[in-house]
Design brief:
The strands form two sheets. Strands 1-2-3 form a three-stranded mixed sheet. Strands 4-5-6 form a three-stranded mixed sheet. With about 325 residues, the chain is mainly α.
């Protein structure tokens, strides 16, 4: 007789992972003023309304906003909480998927929901908390996906191992110097760390060729932004990562590739990655040549400021590399 396969463990997050376990309750005969004082004292946005040890309703910050008559506050001590509470409660089972509960709350426009186990209230869940957790989980998942894609590229090419990581570090430093928002920096970081993902489609012998590339090989290399775009365009990132990857070799005078875009047609994050990519490429060894050094890299971007490269990005990059000297060892440290 064959052994039964092991039972699959359920890895889906449930409400138990996200609920607030500290419950605040109030007797239904108490006044609205008592409820407001209790909510402030306990720093909660919802309290359970009880009658004879049974939960009969919920009073939330939304009820405060829409049901309390602030033009007649002297009556608050005389209005019983049961008159303004939300009854006919929907309950969330403690083992329910948090995704399913979140969708139910959104559909029914419910802001807070008690969590029950075997008929007993064990905690409270708010739609705001679920949405926050959902966004955090999605961001972590996207970061893991991006990290896996980046690793796949670097494992194929020993000469550029760490290239994308170094470009990401410098690009993010430039972004901070230019006061990008946290959200913009998040997109810049992810785009930079996979900007060469399209090289998965380039034969390894070309990527690692020690001599000068012939025109046909160089044309094949130049297809990697488009290949990267094809990989990423179907993933619903909260940033335009596919477009940034597609544009990271564009130049502001239109001489770049693959589309020959000009200044305002290029996404700003792509302009940042372009400059960081040039610096990293010149300041480190390549299969076809030794490093050129940081001085020459800085000369390149300063000479072509406002021609090939965005002026604000160049100025920020030069400031960082001369001030901080954080990125790579060079033959001559910039003065």
């Amino acid at each position: 007789m064959l052994n039964e396969p092991p039972k699959r463990k359920n890895f889906m997050k449930t409400i138990a992972d996200y609920m607030t376990k500290t419950l605040v309750t109030i007797d239904c005969e108490k006044s609205v003023l008592d409820a407001l004082k209790l909510m402030k004292e306990k720093s909660v946005s919802a309290i359970l309304v009880m009658k004879d040890s049974n939960t009969i309703g919920i009073f939330t910050e939304r009820d405060v906003l829409f049901k309390v008559d602030f033009s007649n506050l002297e009556h608050l001590p005389f209005i019983k909480i049961k008159e303004l509470m939300t009854g006919n409660l929907k309950m969330a089972d403690i083992n329910a998927s948090y995704i399913n509960v979140m969708e139910t709350m959104q559909k029914n426009k419910i802001r807070h929901m008690p969590v029950v186990e075997d008929g007993f209230v064990k905690g409270m869940i708010s739609l705001r908390d679920l949405m926050n957790h959902y966004n955090e989980n999605m961001e972590n998942l996207l970061e893991q996906t991006v990290a896996a894609l980046s690793s796949a590229v670097e494992k194929r090419d020993q000469y550029t191992a760490g290239h994308q990581e170094r470009v990401m570090q410098l690009a993010c430093a430039i972004g901070k110097e230019l006061f990008l928002t946290e959200k913009e920096l998040g997109g810049l970081r992810m785009a930079a760390v996979i900007h060469d993902i399209g090289k998965l489609f380039i034969p390894t012998d070309i990527l690692t060729k020690p001599g000068k590339l012939i025109e046909e090989e160089m044309n094949l290399i130049k297809k990697h932004p488009e290949k990267g775009y094809e990989i990423l365009k179907g993933i619903n990132f909260p940033w335009p990562l596919a477009e940034i990857v597609l544009q990271h070799h564009e130049k502001i005078n239109g001489s770049g590739y693959p589309q020959g875009l000009k200044d305002n047609e290029i996404i700003f994050e792509a302009k940042i990655i372009c400059v960081a990519d040039v610096i990293e490429a010149m300041a480190t060894n390549r299969p076809y040549r030794p490093m050129l050094g940081m001085d020459k890299a800085l000369q390149e971007i300063e000479k072509n400021k406002n021609i090939l490269y965005d002026a604000s990005v160049v100025d920020a990059c030069v400031t960082i590399l001369k001030r901080d000297k954080l990125f790579w060892k060079t033959d001559v440290v910039p003065s």
